[in-house]
Design brief:
By secondary structure, this protein is mainly beta. The protein has one domain (about 20-160): Porin (Beta Barrel), CATH 2.40.160.20. The chain has one helix spanning about 1-15; strands at about 20-25, 35-45, 50-60, 65-80, 90-105, 110-125, 130-140, 150-160.
């Protein structure tokens, strides 16, 4: 029993030593616009991280073509520029690439998106992450009905850091 307690204390100490190198986060504001998005961010070194995320969306098109449904995944490489803190905290920018699988009443399409992201992320109370960001996306195959070839989006992600 004593060894188990020592092991648990050691694991909690290790956790605080290497805290905030992983974040699971979701964008709750996206739900208002028909978008569900969640991701995982992993710190690579003091000022860089990678993010892998998944997206589902459903958008009504005014052109009478019905709804566009889609899901996809993307990967981003983040550069953090804060001199007083380490990644994943502070101002960040980075490129990304993703793939979207779209469908409507008439056809299906697979498109690639290239994006650039800028934002600011806080980690409060050692585990509560807040990320405010803006993102520009360029989407290939803009001929798919109701899908713009480029767009700018803003968001707020909330998550758990450990």
């Amino acid at each position: 029993m004593k060894k188990t307690i020592i092991l648990i204390i050691f694991l909690f100490t290790l956790q605080s030593t290497y805290s905030q190198s992983n974040i699971i986060k979701a964008n709750p504001l996206g739900i208002v616009f028909g978008i569900a998005n969640a991701g995982y961010e992993k710190t690579i070194n003091n000022n860089q991280s990678i993010t892998i995320s998944g997206t589902y969306f459903k958008e009504s098109i005014d052109e009478g073509d019905g709804d566009v449904n889609g899901f996809g995944a993307d990967a981003k490489y983040n550069f953090y520029f804060s001199s007083s803190t380490e990644a994943p905290v502070g101002f960040h920018v980075g490129p990304g690439i993703g793939v979207l699988f779209l469908s409507d009443d008439k056809d299906d399409a697979t498109v690639v998106s290239f994006n650039a992201l800028a934002g600011y992320q806080w980690v409060l109370w050692q585990s509560f992450a807040i990320d405010i960001f803006a993102q520009y996306d360029y989407i290939t195959d803009s001929n798919f009905s109701g899908v713009d070839s480029s767009y700018i989006g803003i968001g707020l992600s909330l998550g758990y850091a450990w």
